[in-house]
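Q: What residues go here?
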């Protein structure tokens, strides 16, 4: 039995669809009553639990052999994931698959590169099998810019920096594979898409896929910060994203790896495929 955290999020919900289609025994964790119908439709066992309610998580892990560990990073990221790892060890879970991030480093200026690095380091020292997935930036992040993209503008502060964006559906495919197939204990996988792209390359794909011109517009750090604050992000996350963009602008996420294809037997999705599949989310704004 696989217990899935982050099951209502982007990667987790995709993983749930994949595991439900395979009839793999699993138990998804959700927080709000309104999220239950998604799991009912998949005929997937689901329980209500919260990272901040340790007893609920302990109950959710009962009789489980594997844990898919994913939380949205914030100031309590390290504390929450370490508690989950401890609970898993105590509960007799045998294998944890954790979503981390590329460029993890305990001395990074990027808050979530630092917090993931701390958690990954802690996990590697536990008496339990683990697999750490380290993806680059998600193609799906561009959906956040659907409104300006609809007006023909893709704002960014990445300059000519290239990033090997990954479609998060491929992260879910890898997660399904490592959760259900042997041979991935104590391994760290760097997951990327098939090509390193500048934001101008992304704008060209959006232009071709959406059928109207989209132009990459480089904006200053101050304007980017203001836009993130207007979008409702807190100071911690705003600072983190600004740092992330600086790293991207300096070529920090260029390398492509063959890990998605090697692990799943399928080539990673291209940005063109992503734009085609998510066209409605860009046009229904
Ligand atoms: N975005 C990127 O480009 C990128 C790149 C590399 C790595 N990553 C990593 O990928 C992960 C994010 O993946 P994602 O986009 O799939 O996440 P997401 O869509 O933001 O989902 C977060 C999940 O965590 C759940 N959650 C939040 N607080 C909770 C709590 N207190 N108790 C129980 N569940 C809680 C959410 O539940 P609710 O639905 O109830 O809120 C949701 O299911 C992060 O670790 C991030 O660092 C992201």
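A:
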């Amino acid at each position: 039995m696989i217990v899935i955290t982050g099951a209502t999020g982007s990667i987790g919900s995709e993983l749930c669809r994949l595991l439900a289609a395979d009839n793999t025994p699993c138990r998804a964790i959700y927080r709000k009553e309104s999220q239950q119908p998604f799991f009912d439709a998949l005929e997937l066992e689901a329980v209500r639990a919260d990272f901040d309610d340790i007893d609920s998580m302990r109950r959710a892990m009962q009789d489980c052999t594997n844990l898919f560990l994913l939380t949205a990073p914030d100031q309590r990221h390290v504390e929450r994931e370490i508690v989950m790892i401890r609970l898993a060890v105590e509960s007799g879970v045998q294998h944890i698959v954790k979503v981390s991030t590329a460029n993890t480093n305990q001395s990074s200026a990027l808050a979530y590169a630092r917090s993931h690095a701390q958690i990954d380091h802690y996990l590697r020292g536990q008496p339990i099998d683990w697999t750490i997935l380290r993806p680059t930036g998600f193609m799906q992040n561009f959906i956040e810019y659907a409104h300006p993209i609809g007006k023909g503008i893709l704002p960014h502060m990445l300059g000519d920096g290239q990033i090997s964006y990954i479609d998060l559906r491929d992260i879910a495919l890898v997660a399904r594979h490592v959760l259900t197939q042997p041979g991935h204990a104590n391994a760290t996988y760097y997951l990327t898409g098939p090509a390193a792209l500048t934001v101008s390359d992304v704008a060209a794909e959006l232009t071709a896929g959406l059928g109207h011109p989209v132009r990459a517009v480089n904006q200053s750090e101050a304007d980017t910060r203001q836009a993130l604050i207007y979008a409702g992000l807190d100071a911690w996350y705003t600072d983190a994203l600004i740092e992330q963009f600086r790293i991207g602008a300096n070529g920090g996420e260029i390398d492509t790896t063959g890990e998605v294809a090697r692990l799943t037997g399928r080539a990673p999705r291209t940005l063109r495929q992503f734009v085609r599949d998510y066209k409605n989310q860009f046009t229904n704004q």
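A: Context that may help when evaluating the design: The chain has 13 helices and nine strands. The pocket of NAP is lined by residues 6-12, 31-32, 50-52, 70-73, 99, 101, 112, 135, 137-138, 141 (CB under 6 Å).
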